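dude i think i finally got it to work??
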Amino acid sequence: MVANEYVALPMDVMQKMLSLAGLKKGETLFVPSCGSGDLLILGAKEYGARGVGIERSRALAGAAREIIREKGLEDMIEIVCDNYLFPRFWAHLGDAENKPYAFRNADVVAYYLSLFIQEQLRSKLEKELREGTRVVSYAFKLMGWEPIKVESVKRDDTEVPIYVFEKGKSF
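look at this
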């Protein structure tokens, strides 16, 4: 996977990610690099979760908004077209105070990001997330964080891990 390249996840992977994270009705799911919004849509439809997706690509953000509108989920899911590494998403940097898209409002953060991008997010997540917030990562484990759960899904002939971390237990 190339940094900044969107790769759609298969439905069984997304279902396993949200199930392992223990997403519940009324919780808020954040998805950095949300692409076309599939993970957010699944979270809203299957779990009754609110969603915030952040996508750098205008084309993908626009497509996600259109799909969400067509499914009648615009009151549950917000797509922000921006770079989630910018201060506007991080209350501890002073720019996201009382904003619904601040990462500190997440109950679950779910992603399929390269280790390079995850390392850029690490310190922000460690500072920003509330105790008990779960982070679920497909395929890549951040060094220094200890998962509370690890399960695999079969992709072709390979077992690919899904890691679940929890603020206060894993980091």
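Strands lie at 28-32, 50-55, 77-81, 108-111, 134-138, 149-155, 158-166.
im so relieved honestly
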